[in-house]
Each structure stands twice: as C-alpha cells, then as structure tokens.
Amino acid sequence: YSRFNPWSFFLNGKFYVLAGLRADNGVHFQHDGFAIPFSGGSLQTAQQILTSPTDVFDYVPRDTSAYANKRWDPNPECVVGNSVFLSGGRRQEARTIAGQLKDSAMVEQKVVFDATTNSLRMVSTDPLGHRAGTSVVSMGSKCFLWGGYTADGAKLKDTEANTTADIVSRFAAQNSGYIFTPGTDAWTQLPTVGAPSPRAFMHSVWTGKDVLLWGGTENTAPRLDANVAMLKGVYRFTPSENRWTALPATENEPIFTGYERPVWTGTRMLIWKTPDAESSFEYDPERNQWTRLPAPYGFGLRYNNFYDSNVTWLGDRLFVMPYRDKVLGVMALYVPPNL
Fold it and tell me: Which pTM value belongs to this model?
C-alpha cells in the first residue's frame, strides 16, 4: 500500500490509502483502497475496502486501451466527521510521448468517501470547476479550498514534439476559492480582498479559528517546471470575520519547494520538508516566527525513501509514510521538540 500521489488520511484509528500509483517495476495506476489499523504505536495488517476497478477514481469512463486517462496531482483530502471530500487533479494518459505528458485536461468531478460504509458518491454541485494544486484543509465541519491551477485542456497530438514549456504554458494559477459543506453539498464563495496572489500548491492548516496558508507556486507543479517561481508569505483567513490577513515577512522563513507536508500540532504549523528532513521547520503564528527543526535520527541515511511522503499528526507525534518505489512498509514516527 506504499504509493505515490494517493489520497491518504487518518480516521477512527485507521490510516486510509485510496487510489494513487505504484512505481515498482513500471508505473501502475491504482483504483482501489485500503484501511490500515493503527494501534500500539504501529500499523497492523491492511484491509482492502475498495476493490479494483473503481470508476470514480478514473473520473472518466474506463478504457481498456493503452491511452486510458488517469488522475494525477489530486487536491489534498478534507476529513469532516466520517466523510472525506476528494477532489481535483489532472487526467494523464498512461503513456507519454517524447518523455512528456500528453493530456493535461483538468478533472472536474468531486467525490465524498464515507468511512462508515466504505463507499463513494459524486458531489452534486461544483462551482470550483477544473483545478489541480488547490489548497484544501478541513475546518472541522466544512472544507476550505483556495487557489490551484487550471489548464485549457487542449490535447496535444502524438506527432508533436512536446516540451515542458509547451505543457506549462497552458496552466494558469488562480486566486479564488470556496468553503464546501459535505453534508449538504453547499458551496460558499470566499472573498478576494486581501487574499494571496494567484498561486498553486499553497500549504494550509486549520488552527481551530483560522486557516494558515504558506508558500505556493506562481504557475504549476515544480516537477513540471524547474524554473517556476516559488512564492513566500504566510496568510491567515478568519472565517468568523470572512477576512484575509497577510502576516509580516520574517527573516527565517524557509524556501518553499512544493515537496513539504504541513500539519497543525495544536500550537504550531509543522512543515515536514522532504526529501531533506534536516530542513524541516515549525511556524508559531502567535510570534510570527519560523524555527528550524533538528534532523530526525537516522533519516539522513535513507532520505530518498521519504520523497513525497504523506504525514499525519497523531496528537503527539508525526506519522510519515513514503511514496517511492521499493520502500513498501518503510514508515516512521517523529516526535518534534518543544511540544
């Protein structure tokens, strides 16, 4: 169940892994899901809860040809009670031409996973539209969605000599968003006054009263364009006031790369920065202060195993699960200092 780019979350004592792809002995897109009980400080035997094939994870009618579209770059999941809101991403063909992606069409459909019945349903309304790289975080009873990027969806012909520039030029970052209520499928548009500039892949956490957002890119994913601008700055959105606040710049702010993973510890935003665990940070919003975290013991010997990791806060420690080939079952628990 170690995968790249799945939806994954911790809920009711279980760690869930849905869809994604495996890269062992080739790229294999997955359409199933697993629930992995967590007890006694360790993971137990995985239980399959969704069997392959699952059409909802394709977001398009299943196609047995070599060019079947698959989901890529999904937006982060949003856990609300026993419901999990899943959204976004791009559709990518299973094959590439000249080493480049052939289909950058945005995925529009949104789904809700019910952890009590292990079932999926489509969301009835969707004003957000086709986006990937959207910042998504649970606010307890609702989901916050902001930014991301869109594409024109024009499909390149197999005869074209695709370049990274060809692909990236079709992407456009957004500075709009919504609050979504899974129980009613209701959407509320967010204000744009004082909001961050158009950007994708911002990291976000819910503090209990505010949404904190940090970083982002001006265009699309760093893995598609090494020259894409990495943006700085911490923003705060306060739902009770329906208001954005840009927090003052600080000298110790780390460089955003797009491969970090954020969690809220109860008092700070912890940024697990992969693959280099030595450069992880925590952010204290009360002091507007960044602090570098000490390197976890032993991680430097196998940092590549934790590239594009999933991280989940368990209340007093960080659970880290890698998404790389040939690291099935390699996981870790990290207890940050100063808790």
Answer: 0.83
